[in-house]
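Please produce the structure of this protein holding 4-ethoxy-4-oxobutanoic acid.
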Amino acid sequence: QAADNPYERGPAPSNSSIEASRGSYATSQTSVSSLSVRGFGGGTIYYPTSTSDGTFGAVVISPGFTAYQSSIAWLGPRLASQGFVVFTIDTNTTADQPASRGDQLLAALDYLTEDSSVRSRVDSSRLGVMGHSMGGGGSLEAAKDRPSLKAAIPLTGWNLDKTWPEVQTPTLIVGADGDTVASVASHSEPFYNSLPSSLDKAYLELRGATHFTPNTSNTTIAKYSISWLKRFIDNDTRYEQFLCPIPSASLTIAEYRGNCPH
Ligand code: 9J3
Ligand code: ZN
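Below is the modeled complex.
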C-alpha cells in the first residue's frame, strides 16, 4: 500500500482490471443466519481471504421488493475480490419498504463491524451501502440517516421520496433506460438532481437495460461500482481516472452525469 494513502488496497487498476469478473484477492464467504441477528434478515459475507493486507472497507447490499440475497449475490465475490468486505443481506420480510431497508442496511453494518466473525478484518470508519430497487431506495435512506457513510450506490433504485438534499455521502445513482418499474424519469433522475450540487455524485444510465439488469453479472455496473467504492471508501485516487472526465455515452451507457473532478 502506498505511503500517502493507508487505505489503498491491491495493484494499480486498469480498465481491464475493473472489468474483470474477479479482482486480485482470493475470497472466502460465511453465512449469517437470520436466527443469529436482529434488525435484518441475515445474509452472506464475502471477504478477501488473506489477512496480510490489513483491514478493508466494507459495503452492505440490500435486495429489492419480494427478492432475496440471491438476487444481488453476484456482487459479493465481484466486489470482495477487489478488496472489500461485502455483506449481501436478506431483509426481515421481502415486503419491507425502503425506509425499513435503510434501517436494515445500517443494522447489518453494525453487526458486521461489531459482532461478525470477520469484524477484525473490517475498518469500521470506511463503510458503504448499495441496493437494488427498494434496496437502492433504502441505500439513500441509510445515507441520509448516517452521514458518516463513505459511499452509496442505488441500483435501479425505487423510492416514493424523490428529494435527497440531506445526503452528505458520495452517491452513484445507477438507472436503466428501459426500466418500467422504477423509471429513471420518476426515480433515479430526480434522486440525482435532488442531491446537493456540492456533493460528489454521479448518474449512470445503463443502455439496453431493465429494472432487473442489476440482478445478474453486469460489467458496466461492476466497473463503476468498483471505481466509486475505491474512490470514496478507500480514498483511492488511482480510480479517479475511470470517473473523471465523465464517461462518454456508449453501447452500454445511455447517459452519464456527474461533477468532476471528485
Ligand atoms: O424493489 C423493487 O423492485 C421496487 C419496485 C416495485 O415493485 O415497487 C412497487 C411497489
Ligand atoms: Zn426527501
